[in-house]
Amino acid sequence: LQLDFWINPSAPALPVDVRIPAASVQSVKAFLESQGIEYSILIEDLQDVLDKEKQDMAESAQRQRSSSFDFGAYHTLDDINEELDHLASEYSFVEKIQIGESYEKRPLYVLKFSTGGSDRPAIWLDAGIHSREWVTQASALWIANKIASDYGTDDSITSLLDKMDLFLLPVANPDGFVYTHTSNRMWRKTRSKIPGSICVGVDPNRNWDAGFGGPGASNKPCSDSYHGPSANSEVEVKSVVDFIKNHGNFKAFLTLHSYSQLLMYPYGYKCTRPDDYAELESLGRAAANSIRSLYGTTFQVGTICKTIYQASGGSIDWSYDNGIKYSFAFELRDTGRYGFLLPANQIIPAAKETWLGLKRIMEHVRDKSS
Amino acid sequence: DIDDVGHKYYLELELEDVLDKDRTVSCTAEVLYPLGSKTSAPDVQVTVQGELRSTEEADQEFYNQMRSLEKELEAENIPDSHGNIPPELEPIHLLAWVASGFLIWQNSTENTKFHLAQVKRVKQVKRSDEDLQFDYVLLLHEMVSQEVLPWEVTVLWHPQNGARVSQS
Protein backbone atom coordinates (compact mmCIF):
# COMPACT_ATOMS: atom_id res chain seq x y z
CA LEU A 1 0.00 0.00 0.00
CA GLN A 2 3.02 2.29 0.40
CA LEU A 3 1.71 3.89 3.58
CA ASP A 4 3.91 6.59 5.10
CA PHE A 5 3.30 7.05 8.83
CA TRP A 6 3.88 10.62 10.06
CA ILE A 7 2.87 9.66 13.58
CA ASN A 8 3.50 6.01 14.17
CA PRO A 9 1.15 3.73 16.06
CA SER A 10 2.38 3.58 19.65
CA ALA A 11 -0.37 2.78 22.12
CA PRO A 12 -4.09 2.12 21.89
CA ALA A 13 -6.26 5.27 21.94
CA LEU A 14 -3.40 7.43 20.65
CA PRO A 15 -4.00 8.89 17.18
CA VAL A 16 -1.93 7.90 14.16
CA ASP A 17 -1.20 10.17 11.16
CA VAL A 18 -0.58 8.49 7.83
CA ARG A 19 0.07 9.67 4.26
CA ILE A 20 -1.75 7.49 1.72
CA PRO A 21 -0.83 7.42 -2.00
CA ALA A 22 -3.84 8.27 -4.15
CA ALA A 23 -4.09 4.76 -5.55
CA SER A 24 -4.48 3.24 -2.08
CA VAL A 25 -6.99 5.68 -0.61
CA GLN A 26 -10.10 3.66 -1.40
CA SER A 27 -8.81 0.41 0.04
CA VAL A 28 -7.47 2.05 3.18
CA LYS A 29 -10.81 3.78 3.79
CA ALA A 30 -12.64 0.51 3.27
CA PHE A 31 -10.34 -1.28 5.68
CA LEU A 32 -10.70 1.33 8.43
CA GLU A 33 -14.48 1.37 8.09
CA SER A 34 -14.70 -2.40 8.20
CA GLN A 35 -12.71 -2.41 11.45
CA GLY A 36 -14.75 0.42 12.97
CA ILE A 37 -11.68 2.69 13.17
CA GLU A 38 -12.58 6.40 13.16
CA TYR A 39 -10.61 8.64 10.86
CA SER A 40 -10.61 12.21 9.59
CA ILE A 41 -8.84 13.78 6.66
CA LEU A 42 -6.20 16.32 7.68
CA ILE A 43 -4.97 17.15 4.17
CA GLU A 44 -7.08 16.32 1.11
CA ASP A 45 -4.35 16.74 -1.47
CA LEU A 46 -0.78 16.94 -0.24
CA GLN A 47 0.67 17.74 -3.67
CA ASP A 48 -1.58 20.80 -3.76
CA VAL A 49 -0.14 22.01 -0.48
CA LEU A 50 3.42 21.41 -1.66
CA ASP A 51 2.81 23.23 -4.93
CA LYS A 52 1.35 26.23 -3.12
CA GLU A 53 4.25 26.30 -0.69
CA LYS A 54 6.74 26.24 -3.55
CA GLN A 55 4.88 29.11 -5.22
CA ASP A 56 4.78 31.14 -2.01
CA MET A 57 8.50 30.70 -1.51
CA ALA A 58 9.30 31.71 -5.07
CA GLU A 59 7.17 34.83 -4.73
CA SER A 60 8.79 35.68 -1.44
CA ALA A 61 12.26 35.24 -2.85
CA GLN A 62 11.38 37.45 -5.77
CA ARG A 63 10.03 40.07 -3.39
CA GLN A 64 13.29 39.92 -1.46
CA ARG A 65 15.34 40.33 -4.65
CA SER A 66 13.48 43.44 -5.77
CA SER A 67 13.27 44.45 -2.09
CA SER A 68 9.85 45.86 -2.65
CA PHE A 69 7.45 47.07 -0.11
CA ASP A 70 4.11 45.27 -0.13
CA PHE A 71 1.67 48.12 -0.83
CA GLY A 72 -1.22 45.69 -0.49
CA ALA A 73 -0.63 45.11 3.21
CA TYR A 74 -0.87 47.15 6.39
CA HIS A 75 2.45 48.14 7.94
CA THR A 76 3.90 49.43 11.18
CA LEU A 77 5.17 52.98 11.55
CA ASP A 78 8.78 51.76 11.42
CA ASP A 79 8.19 49.92 8.16
CA ILE A 80 6.48 52.96 6.66
CA ASN A 81 9.35 55.24 7.66
CA GLU A 82 11.79 52.77 6.12
CA GLU A 83 9.87 52.90 2.84
CA LEU A 84 9.92 56.71 2.90
CA ASP A 85 13.70 56.50 3.15
CA HIS A 86 13.75 54.02 0.31
CA LEU A 87 11.70 56.28 -1.98
CA ALA A 88 13.84 59.28 -1.14
CA SER A 89 17.03 57.40 -1.91
CA GLU A 90 15.74 55.87 -5.12
CA TYR A 91 14.40 59.04 -6.75
CA SER A 92 16.41 62.23 -7.06
CA PHE A 93 13.35 64.45 -7.04
CA VAL A 94 11.98 62.91 -3.84
CA GLU A 95 13.23 64.21 -0.51
CA LYS A 96 12.21 63.22 3.03
CA ILE A 97 11.92 66.23 5.30
CA GLN A 98 10.89 66.57 8.93
CA ILE A 99 8.41 69.30 9.70
CA GLY A 100 8.15 68.73 13.43
CA GLU A 101 7.63 66.20 16.17
CA SER A 102 4.58 64.54 17.64
CA TYR A 103 3.57 64.83 21.30
CA GLU A 104 5.53 61.66 22.09
CA LYS A 105 8.46 63.02 20.10
CA ARG A 106 8.09 61.00 16.95
CA PRO A 107 9.27 62.79 13.80
CA LEU A 108 6.64 64.10 11.39
CA TYR A 109 8.03 63.09 8.00
CA VAL A 110 6.90 64.68 4.75
CA LEU A 111 7.92 63.54 1.27
CA LYS A 112 8.76 66.51 -0.92
CA PHE A 113 8.39 65.90 -4.66
CA SER A 114 10.21 68.64 -6.56
CA THR A 115 11.83 68.52 -9.97
CA GLY A 116 13.40 71.94 -9.70
CA GLY A 117 12.62 75.63 -9.64
CA SER A 118 12.48 77.65 -6.47
CA ASP A 119 9.40 78.15 -4.37
CA ARG A 120 7.10 76.65 -6.98
CA PRO A 121 3.35 76.63 -6.30
CA ALA A 122 2.70 73.58 -4.17
CA ILE A 123 0.11 70.93 -3.36
CA TRP A 124 -0.37 69.50 0.14
CA LEU A 125 -1.61 65.94 0.74
CA ASP A 126 -1.92 64.28 4.14
CA ALA A 127 -3.24 60.97 5.47
CA GLY A 128 -3.79 59.29 8.82
CA ILE A 129 -4.66 62.36 10.86
CA HIS A 130 -7.19 60.00 12.47
CA SER A 131 -5.03 57.04 13.33
CA ARG A 132 -7.61 54.24 13.07
CA GLU A 133 -8.29 55.06 9.40
CA TRP A 134 -5.61 52.62 8.25
CA VAL A 135 -6.52 52.57 4.55
CA THR A 136 -5.42 56.22 4.34
CA GLN A 137 -1.80 55.79 5.47
CA ALA A 138 -1.59 52.67 3.31
CA SER A 139 -3.02 54.50 0.28
CA ALA A 140 -0.66 57.43 0.80
CA LEU A 141 2.31 55.07 0.48
CA TRP A 142 0.97 53.57 -2.72
CA ILE A 143 0.30 57.03 -4.12
CA ALA A 144 3.82 58.21 -3.20
CA ASN A 145 5.30 55.25 -5.03
CA LYS A 146 2.97 55.77 -8.00
CA ILE A 147 3.95 59.40 -8.44
CA ALA A 148 7.66 58.72 -7.99
CA SER A 149 7.79 55.78 -10.36
CA ASP A 150 5.59 57.29 -13.06
CA TYR A 151 7.33 60.64 -13.31
CA GLY A 152 8.88 60.78 -16.75
CA THR A 153 6.53 58.23 -18.28
CA ASP A 154 3.06 59.41 -17.31
CA ASP A 155 2.24 62.67 -19.12
CA SER A 156 -0.04 63.99 -16.42
CA ILE A 157 2.30 63.35 -13.47
CA THR A 158 5.27 64.65 -15.45
CA SER A 159 3.62 67.92 -16.44
CA LEU A 160 2.31 68.30 -12.88
CA LEU A 161 5.71 67.92 -11.20
CA ASP A 162 7.40 70.01 -13.88
CA LYS A 163 5.29 72.96 -12.78
CA MET A 164 4.47 72.33 -9.12
CA ASP A 165 5.86 70.77 -5.98
CA LEU A 166 3.99 68.13 -3.98
CA PHE A 167 4.27 67.65 -0.23
CA LEU A 168 2.91 64.37 1.16
CA LEU A 169 2.49 63.61 4.88
CA PRO A 170 1.52 59.91 5.00
CA VAL A 171 1.23 59.62 8.80
CA ALA A 172 -0.08 62.86 10.23
CA ASN A 173 -0.70 61.33 13.66
CA PRO A 174 2.15 58.89 14.38
CA ASP A 175 1.47 58.59 18.13
CA GLY A 176 -2.12 57.56 17.48
CA PHE A 177 -1.00 55.22 14.73
CA VAL A 178 1.44 53.38 16.97
CA TYR A 179 -1.30 53.16 19.61
CA THR A 180 -3.63 51.47 17.11
CA HIS A 181 -0.96 48.83 16.60
CA THR A 182 -0.01 48.29 20.23
CA SER A 183 -3.13 48.93 22.28
CA ASN A 184 -6.38 50.00 20.71
CA ARG A 185 -7.11 49.52 17.03
CA MET A 186 -10.02 51.98 17.29
CA TRP A 187 -7.97 54.96 18.59
CA ARG A 188 -8.69 58.17 16.67
CA LYS A 189 -7.12 61.11 18.47
CA THR A 190 -3.62 62.27 19.34
CA ARG A 191 -2.02 60.92 22.54
CA SER A 192 -1.48 64.19 24.38
CA LYS A 193 -2.08 64.40 28.12
CA ILE A 194 -4.91 66.72 29.01
CA PRO A 195 -4.41 68.76 32.18
CA GLY A 196 -7.06 67.96 34.73
CA SER A 197 -8.37 64.86 32.99
CA ILE A 198 -7.68 61.15 33.13
CA CYS A 199 -8.55 60.95 29.46
CA VAL A 200 -5.94 61.26 26.73
CA GLY A 201 -5.88 62.85 23.32
CA VAL A 202 -7.45 65.53 21.17
CA ASP A 203 -9.31 65.07 17.89
CA PRO A 204 -6.74 66.60 15.53
CA ASN A 205 -9.43 67.42 13.00
CA ARG A 206 -11.33 69.62 15.44
CA ASN A 207 -8.20 71.44 16.58
CA TRP A 208 -7.58 73.76 13.62
CA ASP A 209 -8.22 77.49 13.85
CA ALA A 210 -11.44 77.54 11.86
CA GLY A 211 -14.58 78.11 13.85
CA PHE A 212 -12.66 76.49 16.71
CA GLY A 213 -14.84 75.35 19.59
CA GLY A 214 -18.04 75.73 17.62
CA PRO A 215 -20.78 73.16 16.97
CA GLY A 216 -19.70 69.72 15.92
CA ALA A 217 -16.82 69.40 18.36
CA SER A 218 -16.85 68.39 21.99
CA ASN A 219 -15.38 70.26 24.95
CA LYS A 220 -15.15 67.02 26.93
CA PRO A 221 -11.64 65.54 27.06
CA CYS A 222 -12.93 61.97 27.05
CA SER A 223 -14.84 62.49 23.81
CA ASP A 224 -13.51 61.19 20.52
CA SER A 225 -14.28 64.59 18.99
CA TYR A 226 -12.70 66.67 21.77
CA HIS A 227 -11.39 69.88 20.19
CA GLY A 228 -8.61 70.40 22.72
CA PRO A 229 -7.85 73.25 25.12
CA SER A 230 -7.22 75.74 22.29
CA ALA A 231 -6.73 75.92 18.55
CA ASN A 232 -3.40 74.44 17.40
CA SER A 233 -2.79 73.05 20.89
CA GLU A 234 -1.77 69.81 19.22
CA VAL A 235 1.81 69.87 17.98
CA GLU A 236 0.81 67.61 15.09
CA VAL A 237 -1.54 70.34 13.87
CA LYS A 238 0.71 73.29 14.70
CA SER A 239 3.62 71.78 12.77
CA VAL A 240 1.57 71.60 9.61
CA VAL A 241 0.14 75.08 10.07
CA ASP A 242 3.59 76.57 10.56
CA PHE A 243 5.05 74.70 7.61
CA ILE A 244 2.32 75.80 5.24
CA LYS A 245 2.37 79.41 6.44
CA ASN A 246 6.15 79.60 6.14
CA HIS A 247 6.10 78.13 2.66
CA GLY A 248 3.56 80.69 1.57
CA ASN A 249 2.78 79.27 -1.87
CA PHE A 250 0.38 76.36 -1.42
CA LYS A 251 -2.44 76.20 -3.97
CA ALA A 252 -4.19 73.03 -2.81
CA PHE A 253 -4.75 71.26 0.51
CA LEU A 254 -5.96 67.65 0.27
CA THR A 255 -6.56 65.31 3.17
CA LEU A 256 -7.50 61.62 3.37
CA HIS A 257 -9.88 60.02 5.86
CA SER A 258 -12.00 56.90 6.01
CA TYR A 259 -14.69 55.64 5.85
CA SER A 260 -17.88 56.69 4.00
CA GLN A 261 -16.85 57.36 0.38
CA LEU A 262 -17.26 61.12 0.33
CA LEU A 263 -15.49 63.96 -1.45
CA MET A 264 -15.97 67.17 0.45
CA TYR A 265 -14.99 70.83 0.34
CA PRO A 266 -15.57 73.66 2.89
CA TYR A 267 -17.29 74.50 5.06
CA GLY A 268 -17.74 72.23 8.06
CA TYR A 269 -17.86 74.82 10.80
CA LYS A 270 -20.73 76.68 9.20
CA CYS A 271 -23.47 75.51 6.91
CA THR A 272 -23.14 78.27 4.34
CA ARG A 273 -21.49 77.83 0.96
CA PRO A 274 -17.94 78.99 0.30
CA ASP A 275 -17.42 81.80 -2.21
CA ASP A 276 -15.91 79.34 -4.67
CA TYR A 277 -18.82 76.95 -4.33
CA ALA A 278 -19.52 76.57 -8.04
CA GLU A 279 -15.95 75.76 -9.00
CA LEU A 280 -15.33 73.42 -6.06
CA GLU A 281 -18.60 71.58 -6.60
CA SER A 282 -17.86 71.11 -10.28
CA LEU A 283 -14.29 70.01 -9.66
CA GLY A 284 -15.46 67.68 -6.91
CA ARG A 285 -17.98 66.05 -9.25
CA ALA A 286 -15.33 65.62 -11.92
CA ALA A 287 -13.00 63.99 -9.40
CA ALA A 288 -15.77 61.67 -8.17
CA ASN A 289 -16.46 60.65 -11.75
CA SER A 290 -12.79 59.81 -12.20
CA ILE A 291 -12.90 57.68 -9.06
CA ARG A 292 -16.00 55.86 -10.26
CA SER A 293 -14.50 55.16 -13.68
CA LEU A 294 -12.17 52.49 -12.29
CA TYR A 295 -14.29 50.09 -10.23
CA GLY A 296 -17.67 51.78 -10.04
CA THR A 297 -17.07 53.05 -6.50
CA THR A 298 -19.38 55.98 -5.84
CA PHE A 299 -18.34 58.99 -3.77
CA GLN A 300 -20.85 61.60 -2.68
CA VAL A 301 -19.80 65.20 -3.29
CA GLY A 302 -20.64 68.32 -1.29
CA THR A 303 -19.72 70.65 1.54
CA ILE A 304 -18.72 69.02 4.82
CA CYS A 305 -21.74 70.41 6.61
CA LYS A 306 -24.27 69.18 4.04
CA THR A 307 -22.61 65.85 3.30
CA ILE A 308 -21.52 64.53 6.67
CA TYR A 309 -22.26 66.83 9.60
CA GLN A 310 -21.42 70.21 11.00
CA ALA A 311 -17.90 69.98 12.42
CA SER A 312 -15.79 72.87 13.60
CA GLY A 313 -12.00 73.21 13.72
CA GLY A 314 -11.38 71.11 10.60
CA SER A 315 -8.25 71.26 8.48
CA ILE A 316 -9.71 72.13 5.08
CA ASP A 317 -11.81 74.95 6.55
CA TRP A 318 -8.59 76.41 7.95
CA SER A 319 -6.69 76.02 4.68
CA TYR A 320 -9.53 77.52 2.66
CA ASP A 321 -9.93 80.52 4.96
CA ASN A 322 -6.17 81.00 4.69
CA GLY A 323 -6.20 81.46 0.95
CA ILE A 324 -5.79 77.89 -0.27
CA LYS A 325 -8.75 77.68 -2.61
CA TYR A 326 -8.55 74.02 -3.62
CA SER A 327 -9.24 72.41 -0.27
CA PHE A 328 -10.78 68.95 -0.33
CA ALA A 329 -11.29 66.16 2.20
CA PHE A 330 -11.75 62.57 1.01
CA GLU A 331 -13.45 59.80 2.97
CA LEU A 332 -12.26 56.56 1.38
CA ARG A 333 -13.79 53.05 1.30
CA ASP A 334 -16.00 51.57 2.48
CA THR A 335 -19.53 52.59 3.55
CA GLY A 336 -19.70 50.57 6.75
CA ARG A 337 -19.41 46.87 5.94
CA TYR A 338 -15.84 46.75 7.25
CA GLY A 339 -15.47 50.41 8.18
CA PHE A 340 -12.08 51.07 9.74
CA LEU A 341 -11.12 47.39 9.40
CA LEU A 342 -10.95 47.41 5.61
CA PRO A 343 -9.41 44.12 4.39
CA ALA A 344 -5.88 44.54 3.09
CA ASN A 345 -6.86 43.22 -0.32
CA GLN A 346 -8.82 46.44 -0.82
CA ILE A 347 -5.89 48.77 -0.13
CA ILE A 348 -4.58 48.92 -3.67
CA PRO A 349 -7.99 49.22 -5.34
CA ALA A 350 -8.86 52.01 -2.89
CA ALA A 351 -5.53 53.74 -3.50
CA LYS A 352 -5.88 53.43 -7.27
CA GLU A 353 -9.34 54.91 -7.46
CA THR A 354 -8.54 57.64 -4.93
CA TRP A 355 -5.46 58.56 -6.94
CA LEU A 356 -7.61 59.15 -10.03
CA GLY A 357 -9.71 61.64 -8.04
CA LEU A 358 -6.68 63.38 -6.60
CA LYS A 359 -5.05 63.54 -10.02
CA ARG A 360 -8.11 65.17 -11.52
CA ILE A 361 -8.01 67.88 -8.87
CA MET A 362 -4.24 68.35 -9.18
CA GLU A 363 -4.49 68.73 -12.97
CA HIS A 364 -7.05 71.49 -12.51
CA VAL A 365 -4.86 73.20 -9.92
CA ARG A 366 -1.86 72.92 -12.25
CA ASP A 367 -3.81 74.50 -15.11
CA LYS A 368 -5.07 77.33 -12.94
CA SER A 369 -1.67 78.01 -11.41
CA SER A 370 0.30 78.50 -14.60
CA ASP B 1 -43.75 66.21 11.03
CA ILE B 2 -46.54 64.78 13.09
CA ASP B 3 -47.63 67.16 15.82
CA ASP B 4 -47.09 65.96 19.35
CA VAL B 5 -45.91 62.59 18.07
CA GLY B 6 -42.65 62.85 16.16
CA HIS B 7 -41.10 62.77 12.70
CA LYS B 8 -42.05 60.15 10.17
CA TYR B 9 -39.88 59.10 7.24
CA TYR B 10 -41.03 57.20 4.17
CA LEU B 11 -38.29 55.17 2.54
CA GLU B 12 -37.84 53.16 -0.63
CA LEU B 13 -34.91 50.83 -0.28
CA GLU B 14 -33.05 48.27 -2.29
CA LEU B 15 -31.58 45.41 -0.31
CA GLU B 16 -28.47 43.74 -1.64
CA ASP B 17 -27.61 40.23 -0.55
CA VAL B 18 -24.09 40.39 0.83
CA LEU B 19 -23.56 36.72 0.00
CA ASP B 20 -25.02 36.95 -3.50
CA LYS B 21 -24.16 40.34 -4.96
CA ASP B 22 -26.39 40.10 -8.03
CA ARG B 23 -29.45 39.58 -5.93
CA THR B 24 -31.44 42.65 -4.90
CA VAL B 25 -34.85 43.00 -3.32
CA SER B 26 -36.91 46.17 -3.08
CA CYS B 27 -38.66 47.18 0.07
CA THR B 28 -40.49 50.12 1.56
CA ALA B 29 -40.33 51.30 5.13
CA GLU B 30 -41.90 53.82 7.47
CA VAL B 31 -39.82 55.05 10.36
CA LEU B 32 -41.30 57.13 13.15
CA TYR B 33 -38.91 58.85 15.53
CA PRO B 34 -40.72 59.78 18.72
CA LEU B 35 -40.62 63.32 20.08
CA GLY B 36 -39.14 64.21 23.39
CA SER B 37 -36.09 63.38 25.39
CA LYS B 38 -37.37 59.97 26.45
CA THR B 39 -35.15 57.48 24.74
CA SER B 40 -37.38 54.96 23.07
CA ALA B 41 -36.68 53.12 19.87
CA PRO B 42 -38.13 54.45 16.62
CA ASP B 43 -41.14 52.61 15.30
CA VAL B 44 -40.31 50.74 12.10
CA GLN B 45 -42.67 49.11 9.60
CA VAL B 46 -41.14 47.28 6.64
CA THR B 47 -42.65 45.63 3.59
CA VAL B 48 -40.42 43.43 1.48
CA GLN B 49 -41.41 43.25 -2.17
CA GLY B 50 -40.08 39.97 -3.41
CA GLU B 51 -38.48 36.92 -1.95
CA LEU B 52 -35.42 36.50 0.15
CA ARG B 53 -33.08 33.67 -0.80
CA SER B 54 -33.57 30.40 1.06
CA THR B 55 -30.69 29.54 3.34
CA GLU B 56 -32.15 26.38 4.86
CA GLU B 57 -29.26 24.09 4.01
CA ALA B 58 -26.52 26.42 5.21
CA ASP B 59 -28.52 27.22 8.34
CA GLN B 60 -28.91 23.55 9.19
CA GLU B 61 -25.23 22.87 8.58
CA PHE B 62 -24.17 25.75 10.83
CA TYR B 63 -26.63 24.61 13.51
CA ASN B 64 -25.36 21.04 13.47
CA GLN B 65 -21.74 22.16 13.57
CA MET B 66 -22.29 24.40 16.57
CA ARG B 67 -24.32 21.80 18.47
CA SER B 68 -21.65 19.15 17.95
CA LEU B 69 -18.67 21.22 19.11
CA GLU B 70 -16.95 19.57 22.04
CA LYS B 71 -15.82 22.85 23.47
CA GLU B 72 -18.01 25.96 23.24
CA LEU B 73 -16.91 28.39 20.56
CA GLU B 74 -14.98 31.45 21.74
CA ALA B 75 -13.43 34.08 19.53
CA GLU B 76 -12.13 37.65 19.54
CA ASN B 77 -11.64 40.52 17.11
CA ILE B 78 -13.74 39.69 14.10
CA PRO B 79 -12.52 41.06 11.71
CA ASP B 80 -8.96 41.37 13.00
CA SER B 81 -6.95 44.60 12.71
CA HIS B 82 -6.23 43.87 9.07
CA GLY B 83 -9.84 43.21 8.13
CA ASN B 84 -9.48 39.41 7.98
CA ILE B 85 -12.23 36.98 8.98
CA PRO B 86 -11.38 33.26 9.12
CA PRO B 87 -13.93 31.48 6.86
CA GLU B 88 -15.25 29.29 9.68
CA LEU B 89 -16.19 32.42 11.65
CA GLU B 90 -18.20 33.99 8.83
CA PRO B 91 -21.58 32.76 10.17
CA ILE B 92 -20.70 34.10 13.62
CA HIS B 93 -19.89 37.42 12.01
CA LEU B 94 -23.16 37.44 10.09
CA LEU B 95 -25.09 36.69 13.26
CA ALA B 96 -23.28 39.61 14.91
CA TRP B 97 -24.64 41.85 12.16
CA VAL B 98 -28.15 40.74 13.04
CA ALA B 99 -27.48 41.52 16.69
CA SER B 100 -26.03 44.91 15.82
CA GLY B 101 -29.14 45.67 13.77
CA PHE B 102 -31.23 45.18 16.88
CA LEU B 103 -28.94 47.37 19.00
CA ILE B 104 -28.82 50.11 16.38
CA TRP B 105 -32.60 50.11 16.06
CA GLN B 106 -33.04 50.33 19.83
CA ASN B 107 -30.56 53.21 20.18
CA SER B 108 -31.09 55.32 17.07
CA THR B 109 -32.34 58.88 16.94
CA GLU B 110 -32.46 61.32 14.04
CA ASN B 111 -28.98 62.45 15.10
CA THR B 112 -27.13 59.15 15.20
CA LYS B 113 -25.55 56.97 12.54
CA PHE B 114 -24.33 53.62 13.78
CA HIS B 115 -22.26 50.89 12.16
CA LEU B 116 -20.89 47.64 13.54
CA ALA B 117 -17.15 48.31 13.85
CA GLN B 118 -15.96 44.95 15.15
CA VAL B 119 -16.97 41.86 17.08
CA LYS B 120 -14.74 42.28 20.14
CA ARG B 121 -15.65 38.97 21.73
CA VAL B 122 -18.07 36.12 21.23
CA LYS B 123 -18.74 33.19 23.52
CA GLN B 124 -21.06 30.29 22.81
CA VAL B 125 -23.17 29.24 25.79
CA LYS B 126 -24.42 25.65 25.88
CA ARG B 127 -28.16 25.34 26.35
CA SER B 128 -30.39 22.48 27.38
CA ASP B 129 -33.11 23.52 24.91
CA GLU B 130 -32.87 23.57 21.13
CA ASP B 131 -31.49 27.08 20.69
CA LEU B 132 -27.92 28.13 20.08
CA GLN B 133 -26.79 30.94 22.38
CA PHE B 134 -23.99 33.40 21.70
CA ASP B 135 -22.96 36.17 24.07
CA TYR B 136 -21.35 38.98 22.13
CA VAL B 137 -19.41 42.13 22.94
CA LEU B 138 -19.91 44.32 19.87
CA LEU B 139 -18.10 47.56 19.09
CA LEU B 140 -20.48 50.05 17.52
CA HIS B 141 -19.14 53.15 15.76
CA GLU B 142 -21.35 56.22 15.97
CA MET B 143 -20.58 58.60 13.12
CA VAL B 144 -21.70 61.94 14.59
CA SER B 145 -19.88 61.67 17.92
CA GLN B 146 -17.22 59.39 16.40
CA GLU B 147 -17.35 57.22 19.51
CA VAL B 148 -16.62 53.49 19.27
CA LEU B 149 -18.26 51.85 22.27
CA PRO B 150 -18.73 48.25 23.45
CA TRP B 151 -22.21 46.77 23.77
CA GLU B 152 -23.06 43.44 25.37
CA VAL B 153 -25.76 41.44 23.67
CA THR B 154 -27.10 37.90 23.76
CA VAL B 155 -28.35 36.12 20.65
CA LEU B 156 -30.51 33.02 20.63
CA TRP B 157 -30.72 31.34 17.23
CA HIS B 158 -32.49 28.37 15.72
CA PRO B 159 -32.71 27.42 12.02
CA GLN B 160 -36.50 27.44 12.00
CA ASN B 161 -37.16 30.04 14.69
CA GLY B 162 -34.58 32.59 13.62
CA ALA B 163 -32.74 35.03 15.86
CA ARG B 164 -33.86 36.56 19.14
CA VAL B 165 -31.67 39.34 20.46
CA SER B 166 -31.59 40.79 23.93
CA GLN B 167 -29.36 43.42 25.45
CA SER B 168 -27.40 42.01 28.37
UniProtKB/TrEMBL annotation, chain A:
Cellular component annotations (GO), alphabetically ordered: extracellular space
Residue intervals of the Peptidase M14 domain: 73-365
Entry annotated with the keyword Hydrolase: yes
Entry keyword annotation includes Disulfide bond: yes
Residues in coiled coil: 43-97
GO biological process: proteolysis
Active site: 331 (proton donor/acceptor)
Keyword terms of this UniProt record: Carboxypeptidase, Coiled coil, Disulfide bond, Hydrolase, Metal-binding, Metalloprotease, Protease, Secreted, Signal, Zinc
Family matches, as InterPro entries: CARBOXYPEPT_ZN_1, CARBOXYPEPT_ZN_2, CPA_M14_CPD, M14A-like_propep, M14A_act_pep, Peptidase_M14
Superkingdom per UniProt: Eukaryota
Gene3D superfamilies linked: Metallocarboxypeptidase-like, Zn peptidases
Subcellular localization(s) per the UniProt record: Secreted
Annotated PROSITE patterns: CARBOXYPEPT_ZN_1, CARBOXYPEPT_ZN_2, PEPTIDASE_M14
Family that this chain belongs to: Belongs to the peptidase M14 family.
Name of the protein described by the UniProt record: CBPA2 Carboxypeptidase
GO MF assignments: metallocarboxypeptidase activity; zinc ion binding
Cofactor(s) demanded: Zn(2+)
Chief subcellular location: secreted
TrEMBL record, chain B:
PROSITE patterns according to UniProt: CYSTATIN_LXN (PS52033)
UniProt keyword Repeat, yes or no: yes
Gene3D superfamilies found in the cross-reference section: 3.10.450.10
A Pfam family it matches: LXN
Molecular function GO terms recorded: metalloendopeptidase inhibitor activity
InterPro entries documented for this protein: CYSTATIN_LXN, Cystatin_sf, Latexin
All copies of domain Cystatin LXN-type, residue ranges: 1-57, 74-168
Keywords: Protease inhibitor, Repeat
Listed GO CC annotations: extracellular space
Record flagged with keyword Repeat: yes
Similarity annotation: Belongs to the protease inhibitor I47 (latexin) family.
Name assigned to this protein: LXN protein
Gene field: Lxn
